[in-house]
TrEMBL record:
Organism taxonomic ancestry: Eukaryota, Viridiplantae, Streptophyta, Embryophyta, Tracheophyta
MF term (GO), any: RNA binding
PPR repeat copies, ranges: 110-144
Name the record gives this protein: PPR repeat
Taxonomic source organism: Musa troglodytarum
NCBIfam families: PPR (TIGR00756)
Database matches in Gene3D superfamilies: Tetratricopeptide repeat domain
Ranges for domain DYW: 163-255
InterPro entries, A to Z: DYW_dom (IPR032867), PPR_At4g14850-like_plant (IPR046960), PPR_rpt (IPR002885), TPR-like_helical_dom_sf (IPR011990)
Keywords: Repeat
Flavoprotein in keyword set: no
Protein's GO biological process: RNA modification
Pfam families registered for this protein in UniProt: DYW_deaminase (PF14432), PPR (PF01535)
Amino acid sequence: MPERNGVSCNLLMAGYLHGGFPTQALSVFKLMSFGELLFHPNEYVFATALASCADISALDEGRQCHAYVLKSGLVSHSYVSVGNALINMYSKSGSIDDATKAFTSMLNQDIISWNSIINAYSHFGFAKGALETFHNMLAEEETPTYVTFIGVLSACAHLGLIGYVPNIACASHDVEDEQKEEYLRYHSEKLAIAFGVIHMPPGAAIYIMKNLRMCDDCHVAVKLISIVTNRKLVVRDANRFHCFESGCCSCDDYW
């Protein structure tokens, strides 16, 4: 190109990163920042550079990039993309303390911020921190995604709160075991509770009504969901009301 600018260099960096060449992406960043090109990086360039450091767990280079971010004043202006990239870089490079500082220093967090720090805590084995952050997220009325629940369920597994194995005997279809497990995911009470968790205010009780007996698999699953979501879950089946709270059911597992 006869003329190169920050936009073209950032596109080249992103191409290298997504093509599986993070080291080359960092080389372009160094040319922009300290080399012959001398373009002033913007928040998108920093985010790409930090993501490249994360891909190769380059903590020292990530710290240098962070120092340059601070010098440029981008963090103080609350660029969410840069904050998210910092959380990702530090967590993947082995520094959960720095990842936490990056998260708490953000003036505003989005769903990517929350998911990143929850999964970081879970990956490091800090299950209580992951669950506490999840409840803080709900208190901020941020809607969880499947990525959120992956981190939360992993945290619960670390704490021994998830002892959950699909009970394929509850699947009546005459299919292979793998398909039976798949069918269990779509039992009506599970789908209704998932909908309620996504759309109802944090901490609000969820009431489900059905005209069939609740199966054993759903009964175990809903007990665990009541722990993870910190909610009261009430399910009325053909026999009785089941009130799930803190991993226990009012029926005392007899119905």
